Amino acid sequence: MRESLRLAGTLTAIALVASLGLAVAYDSTHEVKEQYDLVEQERARREVLPDAESAVFEEVTTDSLVNGRPFSYYTARAAEGSPEVLGYTFIAYGKGYSSTLVTMVGVDASFAVTGIRIISQQETPGLGTKVQEIASRNTLWQVLSGKAVEEVGLRPWFQAQFDGRGEDGLRVVKTRGEDGVLAVTGATISSEAVTGSVRRGIAMLRSVEAGGAAPAGEAAGEAVPAEVEP
User: Is 54 strand, coil or helix?
Assistant: First the structure.
């Protein structure tokens, strides 16, 4: 009995020390991670608004919800206090097949997309993850012969499709040549998650900037059903 109590006490002490160690590690790293995330978001913000490289960003918070999340956005101006609006950025959240896809979105003053960048996703490898796939222009022969050209700066083909599109053009299609965002083969749900979240974000942004009410289904934080085909 005494031996059992001693063993239990030892295990309890080990558990307490381990828990304390994890707590200390979290406290010492989470602030660093938060700062890193903010830097990455700032970088993505300027990436999706390429014409606003030297712009001043002003954060705007709202009481509206999009898919149950508070909606906020940034207004890009040529200079602090300037009435000239260069564009807007916001983060869109879309429920995919196995994760929430988080997308930084940039739009110009007319609410047309200037660029998007998926900043977080954990979709199925080889399927949903292809929303971040960069299509190489090098042929197999160029690669094998050592003549492949450097492709720094290329953007994921799926994300590049959003450039210049307004709300009406943000719909997923499955056939090349149709007017819309071509879905990733085998990952329609992931494709719709991104496309739908961007579309709903633009609708909310347009409404807020116009001083109107939130679009139907959003003010209460209700998710607008996605037109998903398996």
Answer: coil
Euclidean distance between CA atoms 128 and 184, whole angstroms: 7
Candidates 27, 3, 20, 48; CA nearest to 163 is: 48
125 neighbors 131 (Cβ within 8 angstroms): no
**73, 168 contact by CB (below 8 A):** no
**Which distant-in-sequence residues (6+ apart) come within 8 Å of 29 by Cβ?**
none
How far apart, in whole angstroms, are the C-alpha atoms of residue 41 and residue 43? 5
Q: Where are the alpha helices (DSSP H) in the chain?
A: 2-48, 140-144, 157-160, 188-209
pTM of the model: 0.75
Residue 113 pairs in a beta bridge with 107
Three-class secondary structure of residue 11 per DSSP: helix
- Taken as a whole, the chain contains a residue count of 230
pLDDT tens, residue by residue, 70-109 = 999 999 998 888 888 999 999 999 999 999 999 999 999 9
CA distance linking residue 166 with residue 153, whole number of Å: 25
- Rounded Cα–Cα distance for residues 61 and 74 (Å): 9
Query: Do residues 96 and 123 lie in contact, with contact meaning Cβ atoms separated by under 8 Å?
Result: yes
Smallest Cα–Cα separation from 105: which of 73, 63, 145?
A: 73
